[in-house]
Amino acid sequence: MPKKLTVIAGTPKRLVKSGSTQIVQAQKLIPHPKYKKGKSQKYDIGIVLMKDDLDLGGSAASIPLYNKAPVAGVECSIVGWGTVIQFGPLPDEVINGDVKILPDSFCRKQLGWSNSGMLCANDQTNTEVDSCQGDSGGPLICDNKVTGIVSFGTGCGEPDSAGIYTDVYHFREWINENSCPRTIYPIRTLLILMLQLQLAFLARVTGVS
Fold first, then answer.
1. Nearest 5 degrees, angle CA 107-CA 111-CA 113?
2. Pairing of the two strands 46-50 and 189-192
Protein backbone atom coordinates (compact mmCIF):
# COMPACT_ATOMS: atom_id res chain seq x y z
CA MET A 1 0.00 0.00 0.00
CA PRO A 2 1.35 3.45 -0.84
CA LYS A 3 1.87 5.85 2.04
CA LYS A 4 0.47 8.76 0.03
CA LEU A 5 -2.17 8.86 -2.68
CA THR A 6 -3.31 11.87 -4.68
CA VAL A 7 -6.70 11.90 -6.40
CA ILE A 8 -6.94 14.00 -9.56
CA ALA A 9 -10.28 14.78 -11.21
CA GLY A 10 -11.74 17.14 -13.78
CA THR A 11 -9.12 16.79 -16.50
CA PRO A 12 -8.51 14.41 -19.41
CA LYS A 13 -4.77 15.07 -19.41
CA ARG A 14 -2.41 12.81 -17.50
CA LEU A 15 0.34 15.31 -16.61
CA VAL A 16 -0.95 18.79 -17.45
CA LYS A 17 -3.15 20.80 -15.11
CA SER A 18 -6.04 22.82 -16.49
CA GLY A 19 -8.43 25.34 -15.04
CA SER A 20 -10.84 22.53 -14.16
CA THR A 21 -8.29 20.20 -12.53
CA GLN A 22 -9.01 19.24 -8.92
CA ILE A 23 -6.45 17.63 -6.61
CA VAL A 24 -7.42 15.98 -3.32
CA GLN A 25 -5.29 13.94 -0.92
CA ALA A 26 -6.43 10.58 0.36
CA GLN A 27 -7.24 10.34 4.05
CA LYS A 28 -7.42 6.56 4.34
CA LEU A 29 -6.91 3.50 2.14
CA ILE A 30 -9.05 0.44 2.89
CA PRO A 31 -8.01 -2.80 1.15
CA HIS A 32 -10.33 -5.78 1.23
CA PRO A 33 -9.28 -7.78 4.31
CA LYS A 34 -8.98 -11.00 2.26
CA TYR A 35 -6.76 -9.52 -0.44
CA LYS A 36 -3.28 -11.09 -0.51
CA LYS A 37 -0.85 -9.07 -2.60
CA GLY A 38 1.34 -11.16 -4.86
CA LYS A 39 -0.44 -14.40 -3.94
CA SER A 40 -3.86 -14.17 -5.55
CA GLN A 41 -6.03 -11.87 -7.63
CA LYS A 42 -9.05 -12.64 -5.48
CA TYR A 43 -10.62 -9.73 -3.58
CA ASP A 44 -8.70 -7.27 -5.75
CA ILE A 45 -10.60 -4.24 -4.54
CA GLY A 46 -10.20 -1.38 -2.10
CA ILE A 47 -11.66 1.97 -1.08
CA VAL A 48 -10.07 5.40 -0.85
CA LEU A 49 -11.52 7.87 1.64
CA MET A 50 -10.60 11.41 0.61
CA LYS A 51 -9.76 14.27 2.96
CA ASP A 52 -11.98 16.74 1.12
CA ASP A 53 -14.97 16.67 -1.19
CA LEU A 54 -14.59 17.15 -4.91
CA ASP A 55 -16.46 20.05 -6.47
CA LEU A 56 -19.00 18.20 -8.59
CA GLY A 57 -20.60 19.72 -11.66
CA GLY A 58 -18.99 20.89 -14.87
CA SER A 59 -15.82 18.88 -15.44
CA ALA A 60 -16.24 16.35 -12.61
CA ALA A 61 -19.17 14.18 -11.61
CA SER A 62 -19.93 11.19 -9.41
CA ILE A 63 -20.87 7.88 -10.99
CA PRO A 64 -23.14 5.22 -9.43
CA LEU A 65 -22.23 1.58 -8.94
CA TYR A 66 -23.88 -1.20 -10.96
CA ASN A 67 -26.94 -2.36 -9.06
CA LYS A 68 -27.38 -5.89 -10.42
CA ALA A 69 -25.32 -8.92 -11.32
CA PRO A 70 -23.71 -8.27 -14.74
CA VAL A 71 -24.64 -10.69 -17.52
CA ALA A 72 -22.90 -11.70 -20.73
CA GLY A 73 -23.50 -9.49 -23.74
CA VAL A 74 -23.84 -6.20 -21.88
CA GLU A 75 -22.03 -3.41 -23.74
CA CYS A 76 -19.52 -1.49 -21.65
CA SER A 77 -16.68 1.02 -21.92
CA ILE A 78 -13.19 1.00 -20.44
CA VAL A 79 -11.41 4.24 -19.58
CA GLY A 80 -7.83 4.97 -18.59
CA TRP A 81 -4.36 6.34 -19.19
CA GLY A 82 -2.79 2.92 -19.74
CA THR A 83 -0.48 2.01 -22.62
CA VAL A 84 -2.05 1.79 -26.06
CA ILE A 85 -0.15 -1.45 -26.78
CA GLN A 86 1.65 -3.88 -24.48
CA PHE A 87 4.81 -2.25 -23.08
CA GLY A 88 4.10 0.78 -25.28
CA PRO A 89 4.06 4.49 -24.37
CA LEU A 90 1.46 6.08 -22.12
CA PRO A 91 -1.01 8.45 -23.81
CA ASP A 92 -1.11 12.13 -22.91
CA GLU A 93 -4.91 12.13 -22.69
CA VAL A 94 -7.36 9.60 -21.32
CA ILE A 95 -8.64 7.10 -23.89
CA ASN A 96 -11.62 4.77 -23.94
CA GLY A 97 -12.77 1.65 -25.75
CA ASP A 98 -15.94 -0.41 -26.08
CA VAL A 99 -16.14 -4.05 -24.92
CA LYS A 100 -18.78 -6.60 -23.94
CA ILE A 101 -19.04 -8.77 -20.86
CA LEU A 102 -18.27 -12.38 -21.80
CA PRO A 103 -19.83 -15.61 -20.52
CA ASP A 104 -18.07 -17.35 -17.63
CA SER A 105 -17.70 -20.33 -19.97
CA PHE A 106 -15.37 -18.25 -22.18
CA CYS A 107 -13.24 -17.31 -19.18
CA ARG A 108 -12.97 -20.93 -18.15
CA LYS A 109 -12.25 -22.32 -21.64
CA GLN A 110 -10.02 -19.66 -23.16
CA LEU A 111 -8.31 -18.32 -20.05
CA GLY A 112 -8.42 -21.37 -17.79
CA TRP A 113 -9.86 -19.11 -15.16
CA SER A 114 -13.01 -18.97 -13.08
CA ASN A 115 -13.37 -16.98 -9.92
CA SER A 116 -16.37 -15.69 -8.03
CA GLY A 117 -16.16 -11.92 -7.74
CA MET A 118 -14.49 -11.43 -11.13
CA LEU A 119 -15.71 -11.08 -14.71
CA CYS A 120 -14.08 -10.90 -18.14
CA ALA A 121 -14.77 -8.63 -21.11
CA ASN A 122 -13.41 -7.81 -24.57
CA ASP A 123 -14.41 -6.79 -28.08
CA GLN A 124 -14.62 -10.06 -29.99
CA THR A 125 -14.79 -8.23 -33.33
CA ASN A 126 -11.61 -6.29 -32.55
CA THR A 127 -9.50 -7.95 -29.87
CA GLU A 128 -7.03 -5.07 -29.89
CA VAL A 129 -9.54 -3.12 -27.78
CA ASP A 130 -8.45 -4.04 -24.26
CA SER A 131 -7.21 -2.64 -20.98
CA CYS A 132 -3.43 -2.62 -20.67
CA GLN A 133 -0.53 -1.69 -18.38
CA GLY A 134 -1.40 1.44 -16.44
CA ASP A 135 -5.16 0.88 -16.64
CA SER A 136 -5.30 -1.19 -13.43
CA GLY A 137 -7.72 0.40 -11.03
CA GLY A 138 -9.73 2.01 -13.82
CA PRO A 139 -13.43 1.44 -14.41
CA LEU A 140 -15.45 -0.89 -16.59
CA ILE A 141 -18.58 1.21 -17.18
CA CYS A 142 -21.87 -0.39 -18.25
CA ASP A 143 -25.15 1.52 -18.51
CA ASN A 144 -23.35 4.58 -17.13
CA LYS A 145 -22.48 2.72 -13.93
CA VAL A 146 -19.20 1.33 -12.58
CA THR A 147 -19.57 -2.40 -13.14
CA GLY A 148 -16.00 -3.63 -12.91
CA ILE A 149 -12.47 -2.57 -12.03
CA VAL A 150 -9.48 -3.41 -14.22
CA SER A 151 -7.57 -6.20 -12.49
CA PHE A 152 -5.32 -8.20 -14.82
CA GLY A 153 -5.05 -9.99 -18.16
CA THR A 154 -2.81 -12.03 -20.43
CA GLY A 155 -0.97 -9.41 -22.42
CA CYS A 156 -3.01 -6.65 -24.07
CA GLY A 157 -5.41 -7.18 -26.94
CA GLU A 158 -4.37 -10.79 -27.52
CA PRO A 159 -6.58 -12.95 -29.80
CA ASP A 160 -8.94 -15.31 -27.93
CA SER A 161 -8.23 -13.52 -24.69
CA ALA A 162 -9.96 -10.93 -22.50
CA GLY A 163 -9.39 -8.48 -19.71
CA ILE A 164 -10.26 -9.58 -16.17
CA TYR A 165 -12.21 -7.22 -13.92
CA THR A 166 -13.28 -7.19 -10.30
CA ASP A 167 -17.09 -7.48 -10.15
CA VAL A 168 -18.31 -4.41 -8.25
CA TYR A 169 -21.81 -5.79 -7.63
CA HIS A 170 -20.34 -8.90 -5.99
CA PHE A 171 -18.70 -6.68 -3.36
CA ARG A 172 -21.58 -4.24 -2.87
CA GLU A 173 -22.18 -5.12 0.79
CA TRP A 174 -18.51 -4.69 1.70
CA ILE A 175 -18.43 -1.39 -0.23
CA ASN A 176 -21.48 -0.06 1.59
CA GLU A 177 -20.14 -1.15 4.98
CA ASN A 178 -16.85 0.69 4.47
CA SER A 179 -17.98 3.81 2.62
CA CYS A 180 -19.00 7.14 4.08
CA PRO A 181 -22.61 6.89 5.27
CA ARG A 182 -23.60 10.42 4.24
CA THR A 183 -24.91 9.51 0.78
CA ILE A 184 -25.54 6.40 -1.27
CA TYR A 185 -22.60 7.24 -3.51
CA PRO A 186 -20.38 9.40 -1.27
CA ILE A 187 -18.25 12.10 -2.83
CA ARG A 188 -15.32 11.28 -0.57
CA THR A 189 -15.21 7.61 -1.48
CA LEU A 190 -13.47 6.18 -4.51
CA LEU A 191 -13.60 2.54 -5.48
CA ILE A 192 -10.25 1.25 -6.72
CA LEU A 193 -8.05 -1.76 -7.29
CA MET A 194 -5.25 -2.67 -4.93
CA LEU A 195 -2.81 -3.40 -7.78
CA GLN A 196 -2.29 0.22 -8.76
CA LEU A 197 -3.79 3.06 -6.77
CA GLN A 198 -3.19 5.76 -9.35
CA LEU A 199 -6.37 6.40 -11.32
CA ALA A 200 -9.20 8.73 -10.39
CA PHE A 201 -12.12 8.26 -12.74
CA LEU A 202 -14.58 10.95 -11.71
CA ALA A 203 -13.58 13.23 -14.61
CA ARG A 204 -16.28 13.47 -17.25
CA VAL A 205 -13.97 13.09 -20.20
CA THR A 206 -15.69 10.51 -22.37
CA GLY A 207 -19.30 11.59 -22.11
CA VAL A 208 -19.89 9.10 -19.26
CA SER A 209 -21.33 10.60 -16.11
1. 65
2. antiparallel
Same domain, 131 and 112: yes
Question: What pLDDT does 125 receive?
Answer: 81
Virtual torsion, Cα 37, 162, 165, 14, nearest 10 deg? 90
Average pLDDT, the chain: 79
Whose CA is closest to 151, among 121, 125, 110, 177?
A: 121
CATH classification at residue 90 = 2.40.10.10
* C-alpha–C-alpha distance, residues 202 and 209, integer Å: 8
User: Residue 96: which H helix or E strand, with range?
Assistant: strand 95-101
143-172 core/surface letters (b: 16 or more CB in 10 A; e: else): eebbbbbbbbbeebbeeebbbbbbbbbbbe
